[in-house]
From TrEMBL:
This is Carcinine transporter. Residues 109-538 form the Major facilitator superfamily (MFS) profile domain. It comes from Neodiprion lecontei (Redheaded pine sawfly). Its main location: membrane. InterPro entries: MFS_dom, MFS_sugar_transport-like, MFS_trans_sf, Sugar_transporter_CS. It is a multi-pass membrane protein. The chain crosses the membrane at residues 36-54, 166-185, 192-211, 223-244, 251-272, 278-299, 366-386, 398-420, 427-446, 452-475, 487-508, 514-533. One of its GO terms (molecular function) is transmembrane transporter activity. The keyword NAD does not apply.
Length: 597
């Protein structure tokens, strides 16, 4: 069963040379038993990723309706409606302007002696009474959101609403730190130690969140949880993608991420709804992080990392493990040839190490491309997060709409798997961002409630597609010598966008429709920006800085790969080697250079 193909190839003298990592994959099995095992193992880690990203939304969710608490009324056997009728004034003009505003004021109460009034039989307020700010805290209507989040518990409402967003920003500030710390660990001590450390930190910090009892302790916990974000999943994702043969990469990458992420993030709202306690929610959503403790026994260390750090023997041990599990037999001379190629590559790689991220800005055209990529990525994250956070303004029953919006990840993945390699990165990004923009505008124009929410969900589908194209596109465009640093730079700047994303919803304080209008304008302008980037489909990857600078110069603005692929163009654009999702990582030099190995 195991012998068949490879030895006969050798005898014919037809066996192709083993020049890089991808060449040896067919011998150990490109999509064998071990790869499928890893594919399944991606599930818990993708769940971790989705939960880390979105749990905070539910930890800080506040009911739409709240009003001042008046302790004096408690002894009087009044229903909430009766209490409101007596103690809460109608919302004033400023409050009514807010999206999702309630008819009664959220932050004002009448300043009168209720005991006296009740004794004289008064049950309905007189609008001429003097009002004051809430003095004894707030009551919440828990009909739609059946639990008190930390934001409700600590009363982050009225002039303190921004605290929820500030906590969200702390989370992403944490991811910035985590990206640097765990990126360093991954490069110097290996991918597996980084993966385990990162998940362990996320796990314990999520548990610690339970004990948070103030804004600052909550922020601190979230900041530490945030350090796990991204790396907890990315490291494994890249390992898996590396071990899968190039022709299966697009499929495995899109399927695993698309399906797992869509499922995980669309069930999260229901978990939150069903648990209905933010502390338990924090613990339950941390549970999948614990998988990291058994990870090292199942997950193989990245062979490419071994190679790039000079440990070729260990890399070969790893490959032998795949050989065993996949039930293949590989001739020793194949490993020998591989060892030689690796040693050559290591030598060549040394010469790449003198480049820094600043080299991206030394050539004018490359500098322009880089800046455009950064702006493109920033804007897209703001649009993405903006749509996520805006959902709570659009729909009081946020659980259903959040779940549906998250589910759009699934069609996004399918659309990408089918179209990305036909239509090209450029037009696909343009169309998806334009779709996001158009539906954002339509959402503004449609009546509040269901119709707006549906339009916003379509907009989210658009930005989901664009976000999935994003990193692959950037990695394909930047020249090899600085690709990893370039992608990291874009990634890290992206965290700033995450930090400001949650504040988009406060534009609603200026005018209720403003968040959607801004998101629409932003995605429209980003869509047009994409058209000024070169297409990378079927291109050779640029290697040197000069190639990066000249990349796509010859392309016509109107070139659409699926329509106008003339014979000459086909000749000029040779098929590039699979680097699918090479850039889907916060990457270090070795990480992406090794993807090229
Ligand atoms: C409170 O009011 C409800 C209805 O208004 C009444 O059924 C109930 O008996 C009252 N309870 C007390 C303790 O007065
Ligand atoms: C609470 O919300 C529900 C559903 O929106 C509504 O039916 C109920 O009247 C509200 N209660 C109060 C006290 O406003
Ligand atoms: C309200 O009036 C009652 C009876 O007149 C009085 O005993 C009580 O002290 C007053 N409460 C406040 C807060 O002024």
């Amino acid at each position: 069963m195991t012998v068949a193909v490879e030895p006969s190839k050798v005898e014919d003298g037809k066996r192709s040379k083993i020049e890089n990592f991808d060449d040896i994959l067919p011998y150990i099995g490109e999509a064998g038993r071990y790869q499928w095992l890893l594919f399944i193992l991606l599930l818990p880690f993708t769940v971790v990723y989705a939960f880390l990203y979105f749990t905070q939304f539910f930890l800080t969710l506040t009911p739409e309706q709240y009003w001042c608490k008046v302790p004096e009324l408690d002894g009087w056997n009044l229903t909430d409606h009766e209490k409101i009728a007596l103690s809460i004034p109608a919302a004033n003009a400023d409050e009514l302007k807010l999206e999702g505003a309630t008819a009664v004021s959220r932050c004002q109460m009448y300043a009168v002696n209720y005991t006296e009034l009740l004794m004289t039989g008064v049950r309905v307020a007189d609008p001429s009474w003097a009002t004051t700010k809430c003095e004894h805290g707030w009551s919440f209507n828990y009909t739609n959101i059946p639990y008190a989040s930390i934001a409700a518990e600590l009363e982050w409402v009225c002039d303190k609403t921004y605290l929820s967003s500030a906590a969200q920003s702390a989370f992403f500030a944490g991811s910035m730190i985590g990206g640097l710390v765990f990126g360093y660990v991954a490069d110097h001590y290996g991918r597996i130690p980084a993966l385990v450390a990162c998940n362990a930190v996320g796990f314990f910090a999520s548990i610690a969140t339970v004990f948070a009892n103030s804004f600052w302790s909550f922020c601190l916990c979230r900041l530490v949880v945030g350090t796990a974000f991204d790396n907890c999943f990315n490291i494994l994702f890249i390992i898996v993608i590396e071990y899968v043969g190039p022709k299966y990469r697009t499929l495995i990458a899109n399927l695993s991420f698309g399906i797992y992420f869509a499922v995980a993030s669309s069930i999260l709202p229901w978990i939150a709804y069903w648990i209905a306690d933010w502390r338990i929610l924090s613990v339950v959503t941390a549970a999948p992080l614990a998988i990291a403790f058994v990870g090292p026994w199942i997950v193989p260390e990245s062979a490419r990392w071994y190679i790039s750090s000079g440990k070729v023997d260990k890399a070969i041990d790893m490959l032998k493990r795949f050989e065993r599990v996949n039930g293949k037999t590989v001739q020793p001379e194949i490993y020998e040839e591989f060892r030689e190629s690796c040693n050559n590559i290591i030598k060549n790689d040394k010469s790449h190490n003198n480049y820094t991220v600043l080299d991206l800005f030394k050539k004018p055209r490359l500098a322009r491309i880089t800046v455009m990529l950064i702006i493109w990525w920033l804007a897209m994250i703001i649009v993405f997060d903006g749509h996520v956070w805006n959902m709570k303004l659009l729909d009081p029953n946020v659980f259903m709409s959040f779940s549906l919006a998250a589910l759009t990840e699934l069609p996004a993945a399918i659309i990408l798997a089918i179209l990305l390699d036909r239509w090209g990165r450029r037009w696909m990004s343009f169309l998806s961002l334009a779709m996001c923009g158009i539906f954002s505008f339509i959402a503004v124009a449609t009546p509040a409630g269901g119709p707006t929410v549906i339009m916003a969900i379509f907009a989210r589908l658009g930005v989901n597609i664009a976000a999935n194209i994003g990193f692959q596109y950037a990695a394909e465009m930047l020249p090899t010598v600085v690709r990893a640093q370039g992608v990291s730079l874009i990634h890290i700047i992206g965290y700033f966008a995450h930090i400001i994303g949650p504040y988009i919803v406060y534009l609603a304080d200026v005018a209720p429709q403003l968040p959607l209008v801004v998101l629409g304008l932003l995605s429209m302008s980003t869509a047009f920006l994409t058209l000024f980037l070169p297409e990378t489909l079927d291109q050779d990857l640029p290697e040197s800085l000069q190639e990066g600078n000249d990349f796509g110069k010859e392309q016509s603005f109107w070139w659409i790969p699926c329509i106008s692929r003339t014979p000459e163009k086909k000749k000029a654009y040779r098929k590039k080697l699979g680097v699918t999702n090479a850039g889907f990582n916060p990457g270090s030099l070795s990480r992406i250079d090794s993807t090229k190995l």
